[in-house]
Specification:
Layout lengths: L2 H5 L1 E11 L7 E6 L20 E4 L9 H5 L5 E4 L2 E4 L9 H5 L5 E4 L1 E4 H8 L3 H7 L2 E5 L7 H13 L3 E6 L5 H10 L2 E5 L5 H8 L4 H16 L5 E8 L7 H14 L6 E6 L5 H6 L14 H12 L8 E4 L6
Parallel strand pairs: 2-8, 8-9, 9-10, 10-11, 11-12, 12-13
Antiparallel strand pairs: 1-2, 1-7, 3-6, 4-5
Length: 323
């Protein structure tokens, strides 16, 4: 690894070890902090901001008020309902985290070097080798930290580790091309085909995303099987689940991708992130939305398989609402 790569630093949230949902085999997923989109349904709201954040976990709090005393800008108050944070005053210094004896205050976001993170990831090498797995860079959006992402990919490849890039696709084409060229597998989100609907639900239209998806396709097509491309579409009730959207994505993939997409996953909506929004003092649009039923998921799978993309490569994943 070059001295430049060793010194390259970035901000991550955490590692998810023993993951089986972010590519082939057993993987360790690195969650990067910061995202280029603002999807209304985002399941990782703690990843949206590039900056560190502090969250309060009510179930750990013992009400000692140590955090309140430690806060020099007086952003914390102990009430009958627990700790209330004025995020307009908070400077994310971390003193409340250090002072809390029960771990109820937690810092979200850690700066690491590519070398430090590589050393940590290599602790899982045995799992990767036995299962055909590797490391997945996710988020947030890894391409928002391109130098760090590239340095990490180079360091992992130097160790013979398979690397997947999990991306929403919204980045400068030059940046995307550099990182896509380094990825063994690209996990690409394709949420909505209609540009206006895409902007409504995610904050940006999909023109650059579709351009970058074509770049990914071209890399895969030229690789002779060395690179792989998976598409993932979240099934969000009332947003992405319309028949014309699912059939439209299928038609687009079937007509324009010449068999270069190995797998299209329709990922069932889940609401396990509700507490994350509450801990961050954020409102979630889908807080009251129920899981999709098995019947609904089956129907959506049928719509997706009707548009022209290979049905044998189309999969519905995730949990259904209990009967």
């Amino acid at each position: 690894m070059s001295s430049e790569n060793v010194s390259t630093r970035g901000t991550i949230l955490h590692l998810q070890r023993l993951s089986t949902e972010d590519g082939p085999g057993i993987r360790t997923t690195v969650f990067f902090k910061g995202c280029t989109l603002r999807c209304e349904w985002c399941h990782n709201p703690e990843s949206l901001s590039r900056h560190r954040q502090v969250q309060w976990l009510a179930n750990r709090c013992i009400g000692c008020a140590s955090c309140v005393a430690a806060c020099e800008v007086h952003s914390l108050t102990l009430t009958v309902e627990g700790i209330v944070r004025d995020r307009g005053l908070c400077v994310t210094c971390g003193r409340c985290v250090e002072a809390c004896p029960s771990g109820a205050m937690e810092m979200l976001g850690k700066e690491v070097s590519a070398a430090e993170l590589t050393a940590e990831l290599l602790k899982d090498r045995a799992y990767f080798e036995k299962s055909g797995g590797g490391v997945t860079l996710s988020g947030g959006e890894p391409t928002l930290q391109p130098a760090f992402c590239a340095a990490l990919m180079d360091a992992l490849h130097a160790e013979g580790v398979h690397v997947a890039l999990d991306t929403c696709g919204l980045s400068a084409p030059g940046v995307f091309s550099e990182l896509a060229a380094k990825a063994d597998l690209i996990l690409f989100d394709l949420k909505l085909m209609n540009p206006d609907e895409h902007k409504r639900w995610t904050g940006a239209d999909n023109s650059r995303i579709l351009r970058n998806l074509e770049i990914a396709r071209d890399f895969v097509s030229r690789s002779g099987g060395a690179k792989r491309l998976w598409i993932r579409t979240p099934l969000i009730p009332g947003a992405t689940t319309a028949p014309d959207n699912l059939a439209g994505i299928s038609a687009y993939l079937g007509a324009s991708f010449d068999g270069s997409v190995e797998r299209w996953e329709l990922c069932a909506f889940n609401n396990l992130c509700r507490d994350k929004y509450e801990r961050l003092g954020m409102r979630w649009t889908f807080a009251e939305t129920e899981l999709l039923t098995a019947q609904q998921l089956t129907q959506m799978g049928e719509w997706a398989r009707s548009g022209g993309f290979d049905p044998s490569r189309t999969f519905v994943t995730g949990a259904a609402k209990a009967s």
